[in-house]
Automatic annotation (TrEMBL):
EC number(s) reported in the record: 3.1.3.-
A molecular function (GO) term: phosphatase activity
UniProt key word Magnesium: yes
UniProt KW Transcription keyword: no
Name of protein: D,D-heptose 1,7-bisphosphate phosphatase
Active site per the UniProt annotation: 11 (nucleophile), 13 (proton donor)
GO cellular component: cytoplasm
Sequence positions that bind Mg(2+): 11, 13, 129-130
Cofactor(s) the record lists: Mg(2+)
GO annotation, biological process: carbohydrate metabolic process
Amino acid sequence: MEPGKKAVFLDRDDTLIHNVPYLADPSKVDPIPGASEALQRLRDAGYLLFLFTNQSGIGRGYYQRADAEACNRETEKRLGLSPGFEGICIAPESPDDPEPVYRKPSPRYLEEMISLHGLDPEQVWMVGDKESDVEAGRRAGVNSARIGKSRDAEGDGVPTFASVLHFTDWLLALSGETTED
Ligand SMILES: [Mg+2]
């Protein structure tokens, strides 16, 4: 049997690009230093890359899904990611939606992609700056990493990094030690 594939699911705002509240204008997409290099190195190491972003501005009626899609395309462009992400989930629900399907911490998108792409949960990471990112990974039974604080600042065993590039350095060093081929 073919071994399961490995993947990294990335939050967008304050993980890959600087957070702009209710971003709907592609000209305001501003990459975080090192994010482009991180994605390239992860892809080169064989990780499938997915974008998983909560966009409650859609559910609140502040902007349309097409605006979020335009910002995501600009994010891929500014990060030099070509071809783009293997998959993108824009979770449109507002926080007061009684039954959000995709809004993190829902693990739904992760679960769907694990099934669709034959991913190995032990080699899947959910990476983001919020507890809802960490929790989505936890609920899906994959690994989580936190961005934006010094490592393991929360003391909860979730590896924590100053940036997605620091995470990438750590992950690739780790897999270099444990990968047989
Ligand atoms: Mg974020």
